[in-house]
Design a protein that fits this description.
Helices cover 88% and strands 0% of the residues. The chain is an all-alpha fold and 133 residues long. It is rod-shaped, with a radius of gyration of 22 Å. The protein starts with a helix and ends with a helix. The N terminus is likely disordered. Keywords: Coiled coil.
Amino acid sequence: MVGVGDITAVPAYMTTRVQIKQSQIARIGTLEKELDDLNERWDEFAMKIKAEEKKGKNYDQQVLEDYKKRAKLTANKIKTKNEQIKEAKKYRDVIDKELPPAEKAIAGLSLKDATATIDKLISKSNRILAKLK
């Protein structure tokens, strides 16, 4: 016999699948912070390069090359983050299409938050990449 509480109960396998998918969605917030940190680091290197170049003949070639190398490495990391954000969007889209309705209801709020965050992140990431060129 099914009790009243059993109607809303969710099978364990569904909860586990949703938790796994939600952990992937939670990664999106981490990507945003990492992207912001890399953007700040790149801006810092860009300012240091400009300051070093303004010194004219008195600049230290080794220091300037080091800043440029570190700025380039940071730019590459930003490009990698951009790819990870695009992957997260694909993953979110797959979750949205593949989850059965019951599981989608469990993960529903997270999916809505993830959609808004991913879209915001993609536009932010694209702005940052445009600045790097």
